[in-house]
Amino acid sequence: MQIDPKGTVAGWPSLVVRRTLRELRACLTWGLGELVSAALVQPAEARALIKALLAEGLIEAHGPRAWKVTQAGQTLSSATAARRVTGATAQKALQQFLARVEQVNNEPYFLGKVTRVVLFGSMLKPQVERLSDVDLAVELASKEEDFDRMRARNYERVEELTAQGHRFRNFLEQEGYWYGEVFGFLKRKSRVLALAGYTVEKNFVLTVPHRFLIGQPERIGEQAPPNTPESGVRKRRPRDCPFLRAER
Fold first, then answer.
1. Which of 19, 67, 217, 246 could form a disulfide with 212 if both were Cys (CB 3.0 to 4.6 A apart)?
2. Among 150-154, 174-178, 203-207, whose mean pLDDT is lowest?
3. Alpha carbon of 204 to those of 111, 222, 247: distances in Å?
4. In this structure, is the dihedral angle defined by the CA atoms of residues 101, 102, 103 and 105, taken in order, positive or negative?
5. Which of 217, 211, 204 lies closest to 26 in space, CA to CA?
6. Do the bridges between strand 112-120 and strand 85-86 make them parallel or antiparallel, or are there none, so unpaired?
7. How many other CB atoms sit within 10 Å of the CB of residue 31?
8. Radius of gyration of the chain measured on its C-alpha atoms
9. pLDDT category, 16, cuts 50, 70, 90?
10. Dihedral through CA 120, CA 122, CA 125, CA 126, nearest 10?
11. DSSP-based three-state secondary structure for 219
């Protein structure tokens, strides 16, 4: 899906709406405070944005003063505002991405590993000559099976970065640094790649044309394997909201 970077959605700048939905899409539920932080607006503006997103069907109520992103919102959150690219450019970006996957899985430095990669979107449509982007759903898991050892190794890296002057936004970003580091390396700031967390986007990805490039294929309704970051870490997060911000 492609959006006009200078256009609007529900009366709001399209890039603001996309960023907000990307920030919130992995949260099972979220409130006004989370929206304020995601959209970078004041509380009064956030209330107006909630009404606009509700009217467009991009979010829905999920209890008193709580909301969640709908499937339509999930789709919009993954939209690209970049110029379309040729099939050759997209194929090159995909091959470079898969090479980075192999690097992540083989190098001991990385604390996480890629367990699934699913291709979906316009690249699977041969009739499309110029593509909006390469849509990939990625599942990561910790290389260390023991949670306590994995957490200790993660915090060793966090402490090293802190000593070097790196500033973490909050506890959740520290807790999930291993995950974010791998995801960021895979993305490599590519404007061609649109990466999404597989477990979070699973119900959408498996209902549209898709192809498993890495990992065991599955169908909707099947249980995700244990020790995935979305399921394993989320149990320890406030309001079930993960730490990771989606890549632009």
1. 217
2. 203-207
3. 28, 14, 18
4. positive
5. 204
6. unpaired
7. 18
8. 18
9. very high
10. -120
11. coil
Closest CA to 26 of 229, 206, 197, 185: 197
Measured CA to CA, the distance from residue 45 to residue 32 in angstroms comes to 10
- C-alpha 182/C-alpha 60 separation (Å) is 31
CA 159 – CA 164 distance, rounded (Å): 9
Does the pTM surpass 0.70? The reply is no
Q: Which residue has the tokens 């807790």?
A: 175
Short-list 92, 11, 25, CA closest to 53: 11
Query: Token pair for residue 186?
Result: 């895979």
CATH number of 8-77: 1.10.10.10
Interacting residues of 207 by C-beta distance below 8 A, sequence separation 6+ = 220
Residue 62 CB burial class (10 angstroms; 0-12, 13-18, ≥19): middle
Matching residue, tokens 């956030």: 46
58 within 8 A of 11, measured Cβ to Cβ: no
User: What does DSSP say about strands 134-142 and 59-61: parallel, antiparallel, or unpaired?
Assistant: unpaired
Q: What gap in Å lies between CA 228 and CA 155, rounded to an integer?
A: 19
- Which tokens belong to 147? 């949670």
Give pLDDT tens digits for 136-167.
Answer: 999 999 999 999 999 999 999 999 999 999 98
Q: Among residues 96, 247, 92, which one has the least CA distance to residue 181?
A: 247
Residue ranges covered by each domain of the chain: 8-77, 85-240
